[in-house]
Task: inverse folding
């Protein structure tokens, strides 16, 4: 692989896969109390925050570890999420809506499923040309009013480490409070690629949370590695929202509905998430969907979800 191609693929990787929770909190404080606290916090965020609805995105960079968290309230009952996030095959129905995910496959048995993401640039890319990142999938909790699942990988591309995406959701007041947490441990190579990206294509890119107030009294939107991970985590939050909001669409039209819903959600935040026109996005994702179906077929059928995704 040439140095130029590795740099381009590395940039795509950093923009797509930054994912690990440093503190998933599966136990400890009682789940109902914790999520009721989130719910109250998010009502305040809806009044004062930048989104105009109950959502918070925050991040932190400490040493080599970059961490981000998205908390939100979705106007759907928890039952709409439970099957979607506890079945590995369902993850491969919504994660590839993300621009940088070229395909997603499931292998292994029910006890130890392995989800592989095929990662590349934002334009069309065949999975054979993409970089592969396998994740162990685990359901952490499956209760009547609480569900939790995670994707984890000890090693990542370019020497990065400890990748994991953690999802939690609990029913509160007839709605669902969702917590997505993502982090990763940087390597010397990934820091170099990040620096190149931030000096070139990502120079003007920003995240969603605010920097500390400066001497001029102004607090700008975060940039750098924090901006990268916030943008990526927000995409996953919107992917999940688009997935759930289109579950009632007839199966024959559901994939198209998801594509359109996700693109329209991203376009609400053009400063952070706009990358291409809608026609191009739809064309890319339709072609990549067919590639994913073909790729999964060559591996054998994935264990189907307990309900239609």
Result:
């Amino acid at each position: 692989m040439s140095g130029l191609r590795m740099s381009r693929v590395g940039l795509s990787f950093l923009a797509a896969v930054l994912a690990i929770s440093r503190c998933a909190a599966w136990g400890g404080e009682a789940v109902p109390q914790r999520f009721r606290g989130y719910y109250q916090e998010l009502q305040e965020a809806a009044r004062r925050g930048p989104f105009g609805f109950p959502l918070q995105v925050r991040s932190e960079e400490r040493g080599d570890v970059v961490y981000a968290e998205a908390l939100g309230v979705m106007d759907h009952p928890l039952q709409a999420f439970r099957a979607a996030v506890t079945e590995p095959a369902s993850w491969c129905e919504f994660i590839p809506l993300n621009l940088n995910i070229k395909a997603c496959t499931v292998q292994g048995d029910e006890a130890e499923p392995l989800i592989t993401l095929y990662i590349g640039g934002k334009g069309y890319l065949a999975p054979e040309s993409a970089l592969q990142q396998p994740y162990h999938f685990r359901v952490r909790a499956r209760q009547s009013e609480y569900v939790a699942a995670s994707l984890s990988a000890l090693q990542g591309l370019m020497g990065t480490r400890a990748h994991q995406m953690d999802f939690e959701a609990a029913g509160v007041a007839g709605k669902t409070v969702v917590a997505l947490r993502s982090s990763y441990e940087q390597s010397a190579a990934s820091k170099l690629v990040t620096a190149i990206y931030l000096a070139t294509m990502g120079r003007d890119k920003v995240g969603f949370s605010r920097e500390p107030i400066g001497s001029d009294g102004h607090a700008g939107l975060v940039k750098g590695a924090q901006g990268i991970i916030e943008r990526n985590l927000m995409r996953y939050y919107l992917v999940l929202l688009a997935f759930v909001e289109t579950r009632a669409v007839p199966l024959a039209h559901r994939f198209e509905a998801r594509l359109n819903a996700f693109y329209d959600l991203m376009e609400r935040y053009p400063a952070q998430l706009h990358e291409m026109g809608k026609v191009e996005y739809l064309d890319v994702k339709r072609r990549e969907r067919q590639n994913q179906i073909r790729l999964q077929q060559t591996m054998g059928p994935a264990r189907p979800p307990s309900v239609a995704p």
Q: What stands out?
A: The beta strands are 55-62, 65-74, 101-107, 114-119, 131-143, 146-155, 161-172, 175-185.
